[in-house]
TrEMBL record:
Domain NodB homology stretches: 96-276
UniProt xrefs under Pfam families: Polysacc_deac_1
Official protein name in the record: Polysaccharide deacetylase
GO molecular function terms listed in the Swiss-Prot or TrEMBL record: hydrolase activity, acting on carbon-nitrogen (but not peptide) bonds
A single GO BP: carbohydrate metabolic process
UniProt lineage: Bacteria, Bacillati, Bacillota, Bacilli, Bacillales
Annotated source species: Anaerobacillus alkalilacustris
Superkingdom of source: Bacteria
Family matches, as InterPro entries: Glyco_hydro/deAcase_b/a-brl, NODB_dom, Polysacc_deacetylase_ArnD
UniProt-listed PANTHER family: GLYCOSYL TRANSFERASE-RELATED (PTHR10587)
Amino acid sequence: MKKYPIMIVVSILLLVFTGCRTEVQEKQKVIDDREVEIMEDYGSESVEVDEKQFEEEIGSEINEIEEQHSEKKDEPLYILNDDHTVSPMNENIDERVVLLTIDDAPEHYSLEMARLLKEKEINAIFFVNGHFINNEKGREKLLEIYELGFTIGNHTLTHPNLKDLPEEKQREQIVQLNDMIEEIIGVRPRFFRAPFGVNTEISRKVVEEENMQWMNWTYGYDYFKEYMEKDPLVDIMVNTELLRPGANLLMHDRKWTLEALPGIIEGLEERGYGFVNPHTIK
């Protein structure tokens, strides 16, 4: 038995905090409730604490929370192919689907896009640039997108052409952004997309070291001048000859893409396509 001021005892428990913000908040509630119980019994005076018993009592509740969150992971349903499309893992899984991806997040419109997609119960990968999360507003946007349930990808720190950089700078562009993202949302990205689709031997090596998967895309049009308006963009995204089951659709954080997004979704659905949840990609 050791005697500790009650606030020290409670603060020790902060060392067990891991996981996403929602999980941490649930753990904090366990500790807050326990703190209230002890304060009601002892006030601010020092108390005799059986460390082992105390850790076991709180630890069991913390473990239950961790197990609940681990069970929320989605079962793998699709695989990512060498041509950056996705395919179902067996014949019982719908193959007529597309994967939505949004680059250059979270600059101006990503959060609005995420909210729109959330309302329609459609998931997507938001590929993040580091220069958009180097301020509090950008970090808050990223956290909200993540907490809405979306997958966060790495799109490098500053969006350079990786082939123009020496090996160490390429590594920094990927690893440092992973560190930044993890600090904000609590997890490291699973997916990497190189700016301009230019992957190098070094970037592939770093991606593998970081336990990530890299992907380019099947098609995208919102960076061509003739498609920087809502209606032309909807039309080409829905009716292009490149659309096929498993297609990986590239979009960007742009005003016209936000405006076109409802029409793109509606048009794809009318053509019989559903949308892959990136969490189900193996």
